[in-house]
Amino acid sequence: MVVPVYAFLILYPLFLLWRWVDAKRDQECYILDYECYKPSDDRKLDTEFCGEVIKRNRHLGLHEYKFLLKAIVNSGIGEHTYGPRMVFDGREENPTYEDGILEMEEFFKDSIEKVLTRSGVSPQEIDVLVVNVSMLAGMPSVSARIINHYKLRDDIKVYNITGMGCSASVISIDIVQNIFKTQKNLYALVITSESLSANWYSGNERSMILANCLFRVGGSAILLTNKRALKHRTMFKLKCLLRTHHGARDESYYCCVQKEDDRGHVGFHLDKTLPMAATRALVDNLREISPRILPIRELVRFMIVSFFKKWSQSSGSKGGGGGTTNRALINFKTGVDHFCIHTGGKAVIDGIGVNLDLSEYDLEPARMTLHRFGNTSASSLWYVLGYMEAKKRLNKGDRILMLSFGAGFKCNSCLWEVMRDLGDGNVWRDCIDDYPPKTLANPFMEKYGWINDEDPNTFVVPR
């Protein structure tokens, strides 16, 4: 009688441990495939056409022209980005509701079809749909339009996200991850894009016309699963995800807001406090995620170096010396192989590079994505990822850190592990051989540099 009791006491805890481990294995979040949207070539915003669009704005004066010239030249954006159709039709001052809907339909009818066909998953197999489009709220919603077009199941779980800005795709992944923790053997489809048609700014406020220089048409469809049987087919495995929200701080909340100017034109206001708000959010986010993604040896080294720096500064101040003001930088490359950075602008990429002590090789995917596709809002991360894949940088076991920012103000990050060698190239496959180009110089200065020499008293708007 004693033997069965002892056997039970030993085996039952092992059984519980096995069940816990087995359940954990079914909670993993994998990316099976993803697709980035590339509009047709007739929607490319080259220098000549951008100049025409700017000249159509009757509210601009010489000072606004000079500001725009400087902003565009320093933006890091090239001549092959894409704009909404209504701009090519000359209707940017009076866009219609249908313009925004058409922009979304063109994207999702192209990208969802491709990702489902390539992965061999039928629309009726999708269990979860998460759609994020920050500045378009239609009736019925974009998610409902997707369900109708692809005839998705009646019991599909749907999440429609608006107002989350450029960090929305990581938020969408977080929603999927939490669903995967409660149910097994699911497929989830994340759709991330932004509507520019109804949000093109036609006024002359500098803080608001800047958005026209940076944001471009784009979108991504990401197919995820927690099916253990498909592990060998997956591309990436989610290792860690962290969200930081500074919306309780007024200076962070108001640095990125959609509002009306004095003339009633609606636009996206980017405040001068934005770089500081972004830095604070980034620092807080990295402070929390570092212990989860970096090896212990690097954390210990950082603590020791930080201690000695503080001690030397304290000793220097007591002795009358200035001490050292250098920060003890943590080396993220000890736990991360690739950095997938949101293409919020050249200044954003440069700032992250300085804060994380990254090389030009590390920043190249973000810089080239900004140059080729511009800031496509929340979908930009997946264009950056596509660049890494097209350059055959992604090998099995590599770890990728995604960093994104968004209005609110938010900084969201996640770490992915590459599950197999990758090199298809996605949206880059037709042009990757041209990147990086010999120069990223913007031709606007060569064509419109004469504006800097104009006299405000005699300046006439060019026709």
TrEMBL record:
Transmembrane segments: none
The Beta-ketoacyl-[acyl-carrier-protein] synthase III C-terminal domain, residue ranges: 336-417
EC numbers for this chain: 2.3.1.-
Catalytic reactions of this protein: a very-long-chain acyl-CoA + malonyl-CoA + H(+) = a very-long-chain 3-oxoacyl-CoA + CO2 + CoA
CDD domains the UniProt entry points to: CHS_like (cd00831)
GO cellular component term, pick one: membrane
GO MF annotations in UniProt: fatty acid elongase activity
Secretion signal span: 1-23
Key words, A-Z: Acyltransferase, Signal, Transferase
Catalytic residues of the enzyme: 166, 245, 338, 342, 371, 375
Involved pathway(s): Lipid metabolism; fatty acid biosynthesis
UniProt KW rRNA-binding keyword: no
UniProt domain FAE: residue ranges: 23-309
Gene Ontology terms: biological process: fatty acid biosynthetic process
Entry-linked PANTHER family: 3-KETOACYL-COA SYNTHASE
Record-stated family: Belongs to the thiolase-like superfamily. Chalcone/stilbene synthases family.
Name under which the protein is recorded: 3-ketoacyl-CoA synthase
Organism: Hevea brasiliensis
